[in-house]
Design goal:
- The chain has six helices and twelve strands.
- The chain has a single domain, classed as Class I glutamine amidotransferase (GATase) domain (Rossmann fold, 3-Layer(aba) Sandwich).
- Helices cover 27% and strands 26% of the residues.
- The chain is α/β, with parallel strands linked by helices and 230 residues long.
- Bound molecules: glutamine.
- Glutamine (GLN) binds next to helix 5.
Length: 230
């Protein structure tokens, strides 16, 4: 009889180090989490820190509870969706979104925030953003591209971004979804209340203006909350 492999399951979050906030963060800076299951986690942490936020990784529900805003990085949305369920984070993130948590979804993060996908693949989504999104809308991996893109509300000219097997919004499902940028008529930056989503990766180019806009929106949501509590 041949030996058969018995996988030993690891406990999510058990052995993963939690990154501490940068020491130079100003008092009163908002704490912004970066979902750290897959994707460009470090790049987002650094961009948020450059914009004055206290940036922390989020892999567990107690870490989620401690943030004033959350970034969902790009990666592979089916994988991230499954990991979100395995780590017990998907429904808690949705609950916080419904309670007004500012969330910035980039690429796969945009897919995960979408209420609908136009392919019936049945992958787990967080939802909350009233759009129908198409995955891999610009083609295959070799069709990935860098570009400069004018984004409404972002001063200083077009921003540098990378489209990496990127999605795009096929349909906006509600009037309160603002389209801030589009390519060939298809939205690639949308905002709905406290939710911001980009089809591309803004974190790899060193152009931090979208992160800065997100940090500013987290800061004002945070200040409003503090005033409500006070
Ligand atoms: N193609 C990926 C997906 O469908 C997204 C790619 C990305 O995040 N860069 O999930």
């Amino acid at each position: 009889m041949s030996a058969s492999f018995v996988p030993s399951r690891w406990v999510p979050g058990d052995r993963l180090a939690t990154r501490r906030a940068a020491p130079s963060v100003a008092a009163g800076a908002p704490t912004i989490g970066v979902l750290a299951l897959q994707g460009d986690v470090l790049e987002h942490l650094r961009a948020l820190e450059r914009c004055g936020a206290r940036a922390v990784t989020v892999r567990r529900a107690d870490q989620l509870a401690a943030v004033d805003g959350l970034v969902l990085p790009g990666g592979e949305s089916t994988t991230i969706g499954k990991l979100l369920d395995r780590f017990g984070l998907r429904l808690p993130i949705r609950a916080r979104i419904d309670a007004g948590l500012p969330v910035f979804g980039t690429c796969a993060g945009m897919i995960l925030l979408s209420d609908e996908l136009d392919q019936a693949v049945g992958q787990p989504l967080i939802g909350g953003l009233a759009v129908r999104t198409r995955r891999n809308a610009f083609g295959r991996q070799r069709d990935s591209f860098d570009t400069r893109l004018e984004v409404a509300g972002i001063a200083g000219g077009p921003i540098d971004v990378a489209f990496i097997r990127a999605p795009r919004v096929e349909r906006v499902l509600r009037d309160d979804v603002e389209v801030l940028a589009a390519i060939d008529g298809h939205p690639v930056v949308v905002r709905q209340g406290a939710l911001l989503a980009t089809a591309f990766h803004p974190e790899v180019t060193g152009d931090d203006r979208l992160h800065a806009a997100f940090v500013a929106s987290v800061r004002s949501a945070h200040d409003r909350g503090q005033r409500t509590i006070a």
